[in-house]
């Protein structure tokens, strides 16, 4: 089944923004509609409360005015006062009808209807005079006060209803906001994955490229631009691999080609030094010595180039038990003349140690470290070879007396063709390859090689193998 990939990175980004904004836009629309509804509800309820409260107060005031007007009419008997009384009574009756329509549950309406009928019968002057001091006016006032209380109670209920509506709306807004936040977060994570996942794949391939490991051949899962970039990394790996092979082939050919004429040069220099072709003058003997020394130096450089080339190609090897004592004894025998000429003394551990390693690579490490200690150690100084082992790792140290390596050179001396500021003793000069080859060999064995501080020696190299 063919996997569907976004056509371009721009499409992924634009689609991500669009899909993330959609729920946010929906939330904004929902919240605006809910707030609009709440605003309308609050406005209507507040207007109704104000109208009802104002109407109840007006009814109470009209009841007082009706009482005053009726008493004036009973005293003066003026028809104009009667007309005013009739107008006030009609107004009161209309307001009470409106109030009953707005607040229908007040129990005082029956009493008020009865009192309105009584007031309507007081339009006769004789009866008005007889009832002008009636206690029923007090009943009218009390009934209007009860109507105001019922109105305020109804207004409180309306306010409570608005509060409950606000609380319900706030909960709804919170739920919608939470849902939108979760949905937006999921969309953000989805599109972040769609972008980061192929980037991580490309990063992994770049790291593989830097480590000399063949990158994954599968296509990158992502936009077309990143897929093409992944293919370009594979193409770059093939090109680098081809160039690396050409470099190693060139070094191998050059090294082997140089060894043949070098052997002839050394043989000729030896013949001249032995004076087999005739006696030599002192100047000629000095020239022969120069030929011998530089030919040996050239041979050492060629051998180290071959070692470096072999290590760089990461050839497969098998680990076998390697005894350290015989290895160190053979090295001491090789460097015996140099050690005697400088007056150096080598201290080896008394107990034996066997390491699981490749013999060739382990000898390269120890040879370069020992040669370094002999060449840079102080005349008449001590050289210590120490080793040990625990449950997790084994270690070997080569330490010597002499000038300490400056702090800023402790890593640089492990780079190829790099030498420190300390002068090497002896006729042959260093190539700057020994420590680099030693560290490469240690890494290939799954270990580490570096400088460590030592209380007994000025310089101490430690090899650690797991």
TrEMBL record:
Keywords: Kinase, Membrane, Phosphoprotein, Transferase, Transmembrane, Transmembrane helix, Two-component regulatory system. Residues 253-466 form the Histidine kinase domain. The keyword Transferase applies. One of its GO terms (molecular function) is kinase activity. It comes from the Bacteria. InterPro entries: HATPase_C_sf, HATPase_dom, His_kinase_dom, HisK_dim/P_dom, HisK_dim/P_sf, Sensor_HK_Regulatory, Sig_transdc_His_kin-like_C. The chain crosses the membrane at residues 12-29, 173-196. CDD domains: HisKA (cd00082). It catalyses: ATP + protein L-histidine = ADP + protein N-phospho-L-histidine. Pfam families: HATPase_c (PF02518), HisKA (PF00512). This is histidine kinase.
């Amino acid at each position: 089944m063919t996997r569907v990939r976004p056509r371009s990175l721009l499409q992924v980004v634009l689609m991500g923004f669009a899909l993330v904004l959609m729920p946010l836009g929906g939330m904004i629309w929902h919240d605006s509609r809910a707030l609009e509804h709440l605003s309308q509800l609050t406005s209507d309820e507040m207007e109704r409360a104000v109208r009802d409260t104002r109407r109840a107060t007006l009814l109470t005031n009209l009841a007082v005015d009706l009482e005053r007007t009726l008493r004036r009419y009973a005293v003066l008997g003026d028809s104009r006062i009667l007309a005013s009384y009739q107008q006030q009574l009609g107004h009161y009756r209309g307001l009470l009808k409106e109030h009953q329509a707005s607040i229908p549950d007040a129990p005082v309406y029956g009493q008020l209807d009865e009192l309105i009928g009584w007031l309507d019968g007081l339009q006769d002057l004789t009866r008005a005079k007889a009832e002008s001091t009636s206690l029923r006016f007090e009943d009218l006032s009390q009934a209007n006060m009860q109507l105001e209380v019922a109105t305020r109670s109804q207004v409180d209920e309306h306010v409570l209803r608005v509060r409950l509506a606000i609380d319900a709306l706030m909960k709804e807004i919170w739920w919608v906001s939470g849902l939108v936040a979760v949905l937006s977060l999921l969309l953000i994570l989805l599109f972040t994955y769609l972008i980061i996942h192929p980037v991580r794949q490309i990063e992994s391939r770049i790291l593989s490229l830097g480590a000399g490991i063949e990158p994954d051949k599968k296509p990158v899962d992502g936009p077309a631009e990143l897929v093409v970039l992944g293919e370009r990394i594979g193409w770059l790996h093939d090109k680098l691999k081809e160039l690396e092979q050409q470099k190693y082939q060139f070094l191998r050919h050059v090294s082997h080609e140089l060894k043949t004429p070098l052997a002839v040069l050394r043989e000729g220099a030896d013949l001249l030094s032995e004076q087999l072709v005739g006696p030599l003058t002192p100047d000629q003997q000095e020239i022969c010595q120069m030929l011998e020394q530089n030919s040996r130096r050239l041979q050492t450089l060629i051998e180290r180039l071959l070692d470096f080339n072999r290590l760089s190609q990461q050839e497969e090897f098998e680990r076998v038990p390697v005894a350290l004592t015989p290895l160190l004894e053979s090295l001491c025998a090789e460097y015996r003349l140099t050690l005697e000429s400088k007056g150096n003394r080598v201290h080896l551990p008394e107990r034996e140690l066997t390491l699981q390693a490749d013999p060739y690579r382990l000898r390269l490490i120890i040879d370069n470290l020992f040669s370094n200690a002999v060449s840079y150690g102080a005349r008449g100084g001590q050289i210590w070879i120490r080793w040990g082992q625990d449950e997790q790792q084994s270690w070997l140290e080569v330490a010597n007396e002499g000038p300490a390596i400056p702090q800023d050179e402790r890593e640089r001396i492990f780079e190829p063709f790099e030498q420190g500021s300390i002068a090497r003793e002896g006729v042959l000069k260093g190539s700057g390859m020994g420590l680099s080859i030693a560290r490469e060999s240690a890494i290939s064995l799954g270990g580490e090689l570096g400088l460590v501080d030592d209380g007994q020696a000025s310089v101490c190299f430690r090899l650690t193998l797991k």
